[in-house]
Write a structure and sequence with these properties.
- The protein is globular.
- Helix 2 crosses helix 5 (about 50-60), helix 3 packs parallel to helix 5 (about 50-60) and helix 15 packs across helix 16 (about 410-420).
- The protein has helices at about 5-10, 15-20, 20-30, 35-45, 50-60, 70-80, 80-90, 95-100, 100-110, 110-125, 130-155, 230-245, 255-270, 305-310, 390-400, 410-420; strands at about 210-215, 245-255, 280-285, 285-290, 295, 305, 325-330, 340, 370-375, 385, 390, 430, 435.
- Helix content is about 40%, strand content about 10%.
- By secondary structure, it is an alpha/beta fold.
- The protein has a 6-stranded mixed beta sheet with strand order 2-1-3-7-9-13, with helices on one face.
- The longest helix has 27 residues, at about 130-155.
Length: about 450
């Protein structure tokens, strides 16, 4: 990259961080082949929050060869990010430097490998000092080591249970047999007909490929004292429930953050989520509240904010699910406060008185999203070491009984009501919460019927 382009990015980096989203930039830079998966994994392993990742991303960008700056401009232009485009274009350098058709055309045909080789050759020609030779040798060792690690990781991949923490996992449906751990002989009731409403629109839930459930269950942690004993029951109940609802289920245990993000990236770009009616995601683990954000913990101790997971399924980053209902379950703690029943006095009141054609549409960044938490911000959730999570157990029981004739928001009210009836010996309870983001239609799951 030219020195002047490098200075432009560095001088405007803080503002770029403020007006761009890490996961959007990550996806688009990977698509433009400015970065590789290995480079992105290194950035995410070394930096925990979105701000630091963006900071590191833009730093790395200045070292990605002569084509990187023009590709960054292409991204901002395609995404209609006028402010970012103006920041990079309003310099003393002629705009022709950025938009020259000959340069853009050349970018389409010059691969990153050719660019990298060109830079390496220029470095060799410009200087042969001992320091440069040592630095180049170290860089090559670093690259080779990462390639070896990646190859080793691919060999260690497993089917989703008891996986290696080094493994780069392959996205694949969960095949192991499961059974309900609820009452004996329980099964999801069949709907008599497709759910409708006289005044409100409903999401289409009629196809055989009803949807996808992506379920992550972190049971074992590096600090074994924090293991989530009993969480295997949630696997049996939730996987069985969604199989009976005719969903394609993906299930993984004890993931690291890097593994989860990689799997979600594979999912967003896969055929599994094309032509489905709905998408559900559930992550069970330890959680907390940090800087007013709900965060989750992974098996290796790394952490991530729920908002960053939700962002990966925005209409911009996941166009396959535009207009489709997307439901997120995060039934974990959101703080350290323990909720208890209290005695209060209130006044008593009386009653006296599918086409295959494609078309371009404009959509908001986030819509058709329902986010379901096991508790409210700042508070803890509870899990029985024999029966599993209070919330998940009640969720499965309510869906088994009422998915045949209730839409999901009514069922979630029942889940919240039933969960609140649980009480520990010390009086602890929990209050579930639901957040809607443009979830403006009713979602009936219509079990065991289809067009």
């Amino acid at each position: 990259m030219d020195d002047i382009h490098r200075r432009i990015i560095k001088n405007n980096k803080q503002r770029l961080i403020e007006i761009t989203n890490y996961y959007e930039m990550r996806k688009l830079l990977l698509k433009k082949k400015v970065f590789t998966d290995v480079m992105i994994n290194i950035i995410e392993t070394e930096n925990d929050d979105e701000h630091n990742r963006l900071d590191r991303l833009y730093d790395k960008l200045t070292k990605r060869g002569p084509l990187a700056f023009n590709k960054l401009l292409e991204i901002f232009k395609e995404e209609k990010n006028d402010e970012a485009l103006n920041l990079l274009s309003s310099s003393t350098v002629s705009a022709q430097t950025f938009t020259c058709p000959a340069v853009i055309e050349e970018n389409r045909f010059l691969s990153l490998r050719e660019t990298s080789n060109l830079n390496r050759q220029n470095s060799l020609n410009s200087s042969t000092s001992p320091n440069n030779e040592i630095r180049m040798k170290n860089d090559m060792n670093y690259i080779n080591n990462n390639i070896s690690i990646k190859e080793e990781s691919n060999r260690e991949a497993t089917d989703g249970i008891g996986m290696s923490k080094k493994a780069k996992l392959k996205l694949q449906p969960f095949e192991k047999e499961t059974i309900f751990q609820l009452e004996p002989n329980v099964e999801v009731k069949r709907a008599a007909n497709f759910g409708t409403h006289p005044k409100l629109p409903v999401y289409s839930m009629k196809s055989r490929r009803r949807g996808v459930l992506f379920f992550v269950n972190i049971i074992n942690f590096e600090n074994s004292k924090t293991n989530r004993n009993g969480a295997h029951r949630d696997r049996e109940n939730l996987v069985t429930l969604f199989r009976e609802l005719n969903f394609n289920v993906f299930y993984y245990e004890d993931l690291t953050k890097v593994q989860l993000l990689d799997l979600l990236d594979q999912l967003v770009n896969s055929t599994y989520i094309k032509n489905i009616d709905s998408f559900f995601l559930c992550i069970q683990t330890h959680g907390d509240l940090y800087d007013n954000q709900t965060i989750m913990e992974f098996s290796d101790g790394s952490r991530e904010a729920t908002e960053n997971i939700i962002a990966m399924f925005s209409n911009v980053l996941c166009p396959a699910l535009v207009g489709k209902p997307k439901v997120f379950f995060f039934p974990f703690c959101r703080g350290k406060i323990s909720d208890r029943f209290s005695n209060v006095y209130v006044p008593i009141e009386t009653d006296g008185k599918t086409s295959n054609e494609m078309s371009q549409i404009s959509v908001p960044k986030f819509s058709d999203i329902l986010i379901c938490y096991g508790t409210i911000p700042g508070f803890m959730t509870h899990r029985d070491i024999e029966f599993g999570s209070w919330y998940v157990r009640e969720l499965c029981k309510v869906f088994v009984e009422h998915a045949c004739d209730c839409h999901i928001e009514d069922m979630l009210k029942l889940v919240g009501t039933n969960t609140m009836l649980y009480q520990e010996t010390e009086g602890r309870t929990q209050v579930a919460s639901v957040e809607s983001r443009g979830f403006n239609k009713l979602l009936f799951l219509n079990p065991k019927i289809h067009d």
